[in-house]
Design goal:
- The chain is mostly helical and about 290 residues long.
- The protein is built from seven helices and two strands, in the order ααααααββα.
- Strands 1-2 form a two-stranded antiparallel sheet.
- Helix 2 runs antiparallel to helix 3 and helix 2 runs parallel beside helix 5.
- The protein is elongated.
Length: about 290
């Protein structure tokens, strides 16, 4: 009897152990199912977010980029073809405009397509060499644009405010020299971009093109120099030149208006004097005729 009771207790104890094991396995299965469900849900939401963002970019970002690219390429090509083919239009100002059109064309070619691809795909596809060349050519094009506008403002200032002195040196040869100086300085000042632009690895065997500086102070000094050289200094030079041009033209217009007003007043006075003299002569004639009749 004791043996039977002991066996029955063992059987009951084993049954309890089996039920505990089954309950724990069920709990683990529920936990795994919930974690897998949450993982699938998160993955689905991330995929849906990527699809939605891609659709938004293709619908709202691609058309403006394409329109700006098309207008930039066609417009600058027409300007370059017109000024290059017609020698009569190669004045000093048009030489600067030709250089401005060339730099704008380069900026449209090397900025818009690569920026659009990076904006849509969030990675860089074009290799290490293009990672160095594209940012460098973009910076050079912007620098040439800015300083060509500065050269045009100075050329207009000397042509309007100092016309007699500027005729001696304001020639096409001088304009070509200024353009060559602008290109050389732009290439020289933006050359550090060639050295610091590198491909940086990302997840999923992808790369991004970033500037990698060895020292944060050098990067800060370079960016500050670009801000001063491409924003502040050109802004002050152009503002000063065009303010002097506006002042000169306004004084000339005011002087011309005053001169015309004085001339009109003098003409009206002469006209009134002539009219009065004619009236007097007519009266004298009438008096003579009447005297003859009597």
């Amino acid at each position: 009897m004791c043996m039977l009771v002991f066996r029955q207790k063992n059987i009951v104890f084993k049954m309890e152990e089996i039920s505990v094991i089954l309950n724990s396995s069920l709990l683990q299965m529920r936990e795994t199912s919930t974690t897998s469900a949450t993982f699938v849900a998160v993955r689905n939401t991330s995929v849906a977010g990527k699809v939605a963002s891609t659709a938004y970019e293709w619908r709202f970002i691609l058309p403006p980029y394409f329109l700006i690219f098309l207008l930039s390429i066609t417009g600058n090509c027409l300007v370059i073809a017109t000024l290059a083919s017609n020698r009569r239009m190669r004045t000093v100002t048009n030489v600067y405009l030709l250089n401005l059109a060339i730099s704008d064309f380069l900026l449209g070619v090397f900025c818009l397509p690569f920026t659009l691809v990076g904006q849509i795909y969030r990675r860089f596809f074009f290799g290490a060499l293009m990672c160095k060349l594209i940012p460098f050519l973009q910076a050079v094009s912007v620098s040439v644009d800015v300083w060509t506008l500065v050269a045009i403002s100075l050329e207009r200032y000397f042509a309007i405010c100092r016309p007699l002195k500027s005729r001696k040196w304001q020639t096409q040869c001088h304009a070509y020299k200024m353009i060559a100086m602008v290109w050389m300085l732009s290439i020289l000042l933006n050359s550090p971009i060639l050295l610091v632009s590198e491909l940086q690895p990302m997840r999923g065997n992808a790369y991004k093109c970033r500037e990698v500086w060895s020292n944060a102070e050098l990067e800060r000094a370079f960016n500050l120099g670009l801000d001063v050289g491409l924003l502040l200094v050109p802004f002050f030079i152009m503002s000063f030149a065009y303010s002097l041009i506006v002042t000169k033209l306004w004084r000339g217009m005011r002087h011309e208006i005053q001169h015309n007003f004085k001339w009109q007043r003098h003409w009206y006075k002469d006209f009134d004097i002539k009219v009065n003299n004619n009236k007097k002569s007519v009266k004298d004639f009438e008096i003579k005729v009447n005297s003859i009749k009597w």
